[in-house]
């Protein structure tokens, strides 16, 4: 049965309307996607500015005393503040955060054999060595106290954290800082505990530190100069 001319015209008009409607919807979706991308970029910029302001405020409150006097890297207090900032940021983005707790193996014997001045110099060398193994501006190495260091690796999963920890362990081992008269004597090494989490607003940053500390204890217990997670 042949369609009448008016019916054909009506069907054609409906088809044209549907095509135009589809084109309009696609264009609107593209504009919405571009707006979402711009908003995400603006949000990231605002978060970065807020973190910079928070760091500046923290430095002002502490009188600018954010570095360890012996090694020149971040100190315990500064590390805790940066960890809190990164914890809040990664909790919003649902990205992983990794912490390394590091202990120097054999420093007591090194001090007994060579003196505390040589021991202090060894800590400075280790601090420099650890710092050289981090590659991003957001990563932090801090002296946590005594012969212990801490490393913060934001947006880093467990595999990446272990890789960094192993690089650090090898780098310190290669310093070959012996406490005996012979090159065959034992050298200073490090034991490393690795902990990774996706931060939650319901948790405190201390939880990942406690987990990394337990992993460090396992590394010391299992023979030292090793990485545990």
Describe the protein.
The protein is an alpha+beta fold. It has two domains: 1-62; 76-228, Reverse transcriptase/Diguanylate cyclase domain (Alpha-Beta Plaits, 2-Layer Sandwich). 58% of the residues lie in helices and 14% in strands. The protein is built from six helices and five strands, in the order H-H-E-H-H-E-E-H-E-H-E. It has a five-stranded mixed beta sheet, with helices on both faces. Helix 1 packs antiparallel against helix 2 and helix 3 packs across helix 4 (116-132). The longest helix is centred in the N-terminal third of the chain and has 57 residues, at 5-61. It is elongated. The model is unreliable at 57-64 (pLDDT under 50).
Topology:
Blueprint: H1 5-61, H2 76-93, E1 97-105, H3 107-114, H4 116-132, E2 140-145, E3 148-154, H5 158-173, E4 189-197, H6 206-221, E5 227-228
Parallel strand pairs: 4-5
Antiparallel strand pairs: 1-3, 1-4, 2-3
Helix pairs in contact: 1-2, 3-4
Q: Count every helix, treating DSSP H or I runs of 4 or more residues as helices.
A: 6
- Structural class, by secondary structure, is alpha+beta
Uncertain parts: 57-64
Level of helix content? Answer: 55-70%
Order of helices and strands: HHEHHEEHEHE
Q: C-alpha Rg, in Å?
A: 28 Å
**Distance between the amino and carboxyl termini:** 77 Å
- Quick one: biggest sheet? 5 strands, mixed
Q: Assign the CATH class of the largest domain.
A: Alpha Beta
Shape verdict: elongated
Proportion of beta-strand residues: 5-15%
Number of structurally distinct domains? 2
Strands side by side in the biggest sheet: 2-3-1-4-5
What's the CATH topology label of the largest domain? Answer: Alpha-Beta Plaits
The residue-averaged pLDDT reads 86
State the CATH architecture of the largest domain. Answer: 2-Layer Sandwich
User: What is the CATH superfamily label of the largest domain?
Assistant: Reverse transcriptase/Diguanylate cyclase domain
Overall strand count = 5
Oligomer: single chain
């Amino acid at each position: 049965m042949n369609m009448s001319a008016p019916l054909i015209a009506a069907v054609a008009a409906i088809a044209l309307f549907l095509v135009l409607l589809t084109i309009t919807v696609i264009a609107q979706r593209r504009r919405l996607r571009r707006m979402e991308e711009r908003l995400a970029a603006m949000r990231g910029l605002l978060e970065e500015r807020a973190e910079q302001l928070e760091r500046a405020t923290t430095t002002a409150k502490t009188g600018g005393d954010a570095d360890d006097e012996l090694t020149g890297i971040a100190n315990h207090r500064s590390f805790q503040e940066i960890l809190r900032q990164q914890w809040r940021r990664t909790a919003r983005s649902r990205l992983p955060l990794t912490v390394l707790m590091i202990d120097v193996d054999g420093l007591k014997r090194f001090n007994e054999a060579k003196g505390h001045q040589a021991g202090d110099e060894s800590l400075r060398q280790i601090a420099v060595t650890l710092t050289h193994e981090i590659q991003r501006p957001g990563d932090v190495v801090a002296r946590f106290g005594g012969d212990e260091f801490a490393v913060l690796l934001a947006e880093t999963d467990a595999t990446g954290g272990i890789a960094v920890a192993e690089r650090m362990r090898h780098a310190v081992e290669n310093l070959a800082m012996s406490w005996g008269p012979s090159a065959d004597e034992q050298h200073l090494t490090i034991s490393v505990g690795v902990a990774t989490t996706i931060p939650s607003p319901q948790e405190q940053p201390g939880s990942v530190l406690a987990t990394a500390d337990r992993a460090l204890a396992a590394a010391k217990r299992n023979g030292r100069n090793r990485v545990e997670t």
